[in-house]
Amino acid sequence: MNYQNGENLSSESLQGKSNSSVCVFSLGQYGYDVAFGRAVNTQKTYCDKNGYDYVCINQDGSELLGRENIWLKAFSFLGALKNYDYVLYLDTDVEIKETAPPFLDILSDDRPVGLVAGHSGRVNAGVIYAKRTQFSLTFFSEWVSSLGKPISVRHDVGWGENGHLIRLAEKYCIPLLDTIWNNTFDPNLDDYVRHYTGPLRREYEFIGDEAIAWSKIQKALEVSKRSADVDILRSFSELKKVYEKNLQTDIFASFNSIWEQVRSHVFSGLETCSVYSDDKTFHSVYIVENIE
């Protein structure tokens, strides 16, 4: 079956998956869940239709991290994947069409990570599919551990977690899904998942409370863009606070269990430099990564 071209998913192909646990979640902090309220409602409808657990995380994050609160997405994804057989992450500006079939069949043990190229031609982190396997757990653990690490120009998107997802997709040669599973640029495409970002943002009409929320977000973005950089360990500490305060324990694994899984990646290739001053020893930690 060629799911890449959007062929119908047969009921027979879904047999054996009816008992699978499925989590779909979105990150709607700082009013994004209100600004894209109609899109969020399509996500809820899709999950209700297919019997998936759904949650929109909308409590505010850390003021210290500013825009980098987006890394909660990576932590939450791994937390959900540790508890569920299948996980789908959706940005709040993602609409699920009524024609969209269950997504389980686009994943397999051989292809447990589902990503789509965005309007830039590189992987877009606004829609992420996964089936829990040892590989997918390792893949997303490495993504979480990428927080604060350097990144090459060809992978960089300026901020946040997307650049490292691009890097890892390239590193592990992840085969990409068809655009119908995360359409970010073609308004005429007969898609299942429409993502109102980039060229498609103009296609979304903000109405009423949505327009008010979007105006507040635009103003807040100017402040968050000026946020100072935060060191790696401080970032993990801040995200731990946000994770434990905002995420439901019956859906997401504990932060400590995630940390146990990613710590080897975080501290791989560390170099410790000792500086002597006034008979005191100061230790500075540097993350070392090859930039190609």
Quick gist of this model?
With about 290 residues, this protein is of the alpha/beta class.
Features:
292 residues; alpha/beta; two-stranded antiparallel ribbon; globular; disordered N terminus; disordered C terminus
Could you describe the 3D structure shown?
With 292 residues, the protein is an alpha/beta fold. The protein has helices at 32-35, 37-50, 72-81, 134-144, 162-171, 209-224, 232-246, 255-266; strands at residues 22-27, 53-57, 86-91, 94-96, 113-117, 123-131, 193-195, 270-277, 280-287. A 5-stranded mixed beta sheet has the order 2-1-3-6-5, with helices on both faces.
What class do helices, strands and sheet pairing give?
A: alpha/beta
How many β strands by DSSP? Answer: 9
Residue share in helix:
25-40%
Distance between the termini: 37 Å
Element-by-element helix/strand order: EHHEHEEEEHHEHHHEE
The largest beta-sheet arranges its strands as 2-1-3-6-5
Number of alpha- plus pi-helical segments: 8
Strand content: 15-25%
Overall shape: it is globular
How confident overall, as mean pLDDT? 84
- Please give the radius of gyration in angstroms: 20 Å
Biggest beta-sheet profile:
5 strands, mixed
Low-confidence stretches: 1-15, 269-292
Write the layout of secondary structure elements.
Layout: E1 22-27, H1 32-35, H2 37-50, E2 53-57, H3 72-81, E3 86-91, E4 94-96, E5 113-117, E6 123-131, H4 134-144, H5 162-171, E7 193-195, H6 209-224, H7 232-246, H8 255-266, E8 270-277, E9 280-287
Parallel strand pairs: 1-2, 1-3
Antiparallel strand pairs: 3-6, 4-7, 5-6, 8-9
